[in-house]
Specification:
Length: 79
């Protein structure tokens, strides 16, 4: 399992390092403008993405709860 994650990490680092690809160019530009390494930018982006996913999950759960509550109210109103 550890080897799999190491392979993922190495693949991501290779893509970020390769400036012939769009992703590498974007991270090089971030590195140039901010003065932080592209790897720090990648970690910050990953943390941000995880936060977005957590918030999206909460929003979906609240929406589903709201929909089920409205269905209960509508059922009671029809009776």
């Amino acid at each position: 399992m550890t080897k799999i994650f190491q392979n993922y990490r190495n693949d991501i680092w290779n893509v970020i390092r390769d400036e012939s690809r769009l992703v590498g160019k974007v991270f090089a530009k971030i590195e140039q403008k901010t003065g932080k390494s592209r790897y720090q930018a990648a970690v910050m982006l990953a943390i941000l993405w995880c936060g977005v996913l957590v918030l999206a999950r909460i929003v979906v759960q609240l929406h589903m709860h709201w929909l089920s509550s409205n269905e209960d109210i509508n059922r009671d109103a029809i009776k």
